[in-house]
Amino acid sequence: MARYLLRRTIVLALSLVVAGLVLFVLLRLLPGDPAAALLSVGADEAQIAAAREQVGSDQPIWVQFGRFLSDLARFDLGVSFVSNQPVLPEIMERLAITLPLTVAAFLLAIAIAVPLGILAAVRADRWYGVAISGLSQLGLAIPVFWIGILLVWLVAVEWRLLPASGFPMRGWADPVAAGQSLILPIITIAVVMSASLLRYVRSATLDVLDADYLRNARALGESFPRALIRHGIRNGAVPVISILGIELASTLLGAVVVERVFSLPGLGSMLLLGIEQRDYPSVQGVLLITTLLVLLIGFAADILQRMIDPRLRDNRGSAR
Amino acid sequence: MSRGTLWVGLLLVGLNAGVALLTLFWLPYDPTAMAGGRLQPPSWAHPFGTDRLGQDYLTKVMIGARIALSVGIGAAALGGLIGTCLGVLAAFARRSADDGLAATLDILIAFPTLLLAMLVVAASEGASLGTAILAIGLAMSAIIARLVRILTKRVLAQDYITAARCSGLGWGRIVVSHVLPNILPTVLVAVALQFGLAVIAEASLSFLGLGTPPPNASWGQLLQQAQSTVFRAPMGVIAPGLALISLVLGINFLADGLRDLLDAEVDLEEAR
């Protein structure tokens, strides 16, 4: 396990470097000089040169990359071209919305998908088993923002139960209002996410139901629910966890769209604004932090899988 | 049961394709002209009502079908082609090159479609049909490439490949006459599934304002505009949404039915 942990950590670090390189190159491929964001229309030569010097785009690209890496090593994500504020604190401030949103939606989705998925597999021959599978198939075809718009319309505008959009000015200093403004976004994400999750849980459970060890446990006198809980869940969880990692990552990024529906000032809206205004440091910062989070989630999912499944743990060498 | 899914899928996709083709020749109203009062409720003249500029929603939803299918087909063709080539190449490459490519694909896959699409749109002169296809197709190609690589390796390990090599067949011939025919059914099903995701991705992009510009507005853009008037004209949100769901559901049914028909043994969840 220790050896695997070491190897997996090295892979994580390498992926981070590669991802940083990819982002750097992609963003430099964009046409137009980033310095243009600093200038007003009709700027003269001297102003352009000054702006280029301030941004650093007058330097050759390898010098820019070297500077980028050394800044990164000092956790310096640069200063926004538009607001002239450091990028990292703003990202942290916005993560205070995006992160709770993602994690709460994820937990809610699991709470919906796991029991329903198991039920759909165990009772695959009953009408409600079929109905659950059908609903999850339908859920896969629904875009998340559509659910969001409908929920805003019904719950917030028609029934006036919750705020329609936005986030309180004082942020988490006003915990009730902040929490309330996140309820609808959380439900929106969870509904769509649980649809795809449910399918994985269902197929993992179906595999478990076919397994010999479950039949043996039954033959040894264990009741069906007990056998399923003692042997089934641990076995079924292994494939589901790697899917969970991917789903959590995509939820984090899918939050971009949901934040737009509910006008939440999270990481997604920062990214959209940055792209609109060609604010390279902001875009780069947001993408770097989200990539870091995505890679960390994958890392955690892999480790968790090994902890649950001893077969993976003992399998040294080429486990991939 | 599976034949049933295939037929329902064909029906839903055919319906959308029919409407998309129809828009090339005929539209109920001019999508850019005022066709009636503002934010009219549904009526015989305007089955889905009108938007805040008095433009007909039905016309716009019909055009949306064309946009969704164009982007879906374009992205699926691009992603399928690039993905298959890359995957076969990786499977044939030397160990180190193959490992490098596989790791790169894993990172690309972790990088979500939407972000990649945003970068492509930001990198080009502005959003258009082309940027949407390019962005979604590129993201798709990584997923297809990973699948093709695994499938090709599985084929290459078979005895009949060794036999073909012994009888003097070159690698090019082996790819054409042994590898491709064997992996094609599975790749086809995977591409079909990605097609459905591409339609949703396109809608999300347009919803964020990064899709096709008007008057060729896609469903995503319609939804974005209709969001602010949903309390007065709910059909503006409901109709494009249901149209989109019918297309994606149809494609997914088609893919499921196709898998059973072609007997593709791949785990579909793996191909997503």
Find the CATH topology of chain B: MetI-like fold
What's the end-to-end separation of chain B, in Å?
Answer: 23 Å
Strand content of chain A: under 5%
Tell me how many strands of chain A there are.
0
Number of structural units classed as domains of chain A: 2
Query: Greatest chain-chain interface?
Result: A-B, 47 and 38 residues
- Which structural class do the helices and strands of chain A define? mainly alpha
Number of strands of chain B: 0
Number of helices of chain A: 12
CATH topology of the largest domain in chain A: MetI-like fold
Radius of gyration of chain B: 22 Å
Q: Could you name the CATH class of the largest domain in chain A?
A: Mainly Alpha
Write down the overall mean pLDDT of chain A. 80
| Number of domains as seen in the coordinates of chain B | 1
Low-confidence stretches of chain A: 315-320
The chain-level mean pLDDT of chain B equals: 81
Order of helix and strand elements from N to C terminus of chain B: HHHHHHHHHH
Low-pLDDT ranges of chain B: 268-272
What would you note in describing this structure?
The complex is a heterodimer of chains A (320) and B (272). Helices cover 76% and strands 0% of the residues of chain A. Chain A is mainly α and 320 residues long. Chain A folds into two domains: 15-73, no CATH class; 87-319, MetI-like fold. Mean pLDDT of chain A is 80; it is low at 315-320. Chain B is mainly α. Chain B has ten helices and no strands. Chain B has helices at 2-25, 57-92, 95-110, 113-123, 129-156, 159-166, 171-207, 219-227, 235-262, 268-271. The longest helix of chain B is centred in the C-terminal third of the chain and has 37 residues, at 171-207. The model of chain B is unreliable at 268-272 (pLDDT under 50). Chain A binds chain B through residues 15, 18-19, 22, 26-27, 29-31, 137-138, 140-146, 149-150, 152-153, 157-158, 199-200, 203, 243, 249-250, 253-254, 256-257, 260-261, 271-272, 275, 278, 283, 287, 290-291, 294-295, 298, and chain B through 103-104, 107, 110-112, 114-115, 118-119, 121-123, 125, 196, 200, 203-204, 207-210, 220, 223, 226-227, 230-231, 234, 237-238, 241, 244-245, 248-249, 252, 269.
